[in-house]
Amino acid sequence: MPTFSAHDGTELAYHELGDGDGRPVVCLPGGPMQDSAYLGDLGGLAAHRGLVLLDLRGTGRSAVPGDSSSYRCDRLVDDVEALREHLGLDTLDLLAHSGGTNLAALYAARHPKRIARLALITPSVQAFGITITADDRQEAARLREGEPWFPEAFAALEEIVAGRGTADSFGAIAPFWYGRWDAAAQAHRAAEDGRRNGEAAAVYGSDGAFDPAATRAAFADFPAPVLLIAGEVDLNSPPGAIAELAEVFPRAELVVQPGAGHFPWLDDPELFVAGAASFLA
Prior knowledge:
Layout: E1 3-5, E2 11-17, E3 25-28, E4 51-55, H1 73-87, E5 92-97, H2 100-110, E6 115-121, H3 134-141, H4 150-161, H5 167-172, H6 183-191, H7 198-204, H8 212-218, E7 226-231, H9 239-246, E8 252-257, H10 264-267, H11 269-280
Parallel strand pairs: 3-4, 3-5, 5-6, 6-7, 7-8
Antiparallel strand pairs: 1-2, 2-4
Helix pairs in contact: 1-2
């Protein structure tokens, strides 16, 4: 497995998938601080473009840093830049999922001329200061009302938004993350256990990581095209919030994938890949 050295000497690993010819798409996982393995080949996107999946420090095959404060999102920007330098790329086609989109945004804000295309998949909006309310999440959840698992899952969601969530509550809402709670979704969910670095996740968005006003201002004249893919039934990143995020970028394209949850490449791989591959072509 290929590795490279971050600027502070931490050894970081990445996975190469698909066609290695031409410039790869650099992919940042969510979680935050989740092993990139859960991304798979992004529904078959690797058949269209080579993918480089970064294991963020302290996750997957990457080393644990000596300084745990380096898990903070704004400090991880240097790791993405070190990867670009290691790959010998002048510019990046950068794709990020969920919590990893905050890192992609901070990287693009700091290094705008290094971005050729930016794809944000069911993005987190934390770096931009956009608010997603409990009502927003419950409204998205109610779109699943006819499904057999809904009563138990919705009751657990109500406990969570009321501040009374337990580990069992968070486990019970798992079906909401997927457009279909079928065997494939359940297997994907089960495989995620143990892949997230909880200590790193606690630091990732800690005080000082984000300056929403500065980040928004940095994108006022951002030159690169931006694709935002939202899942129609995603309660983590509801389409309304992603539409608000799209307004930040001068050259944004918003796609709401029908029937998709938080992992649109699993819910409808063909539709997801068609849109992502076209944008990244």
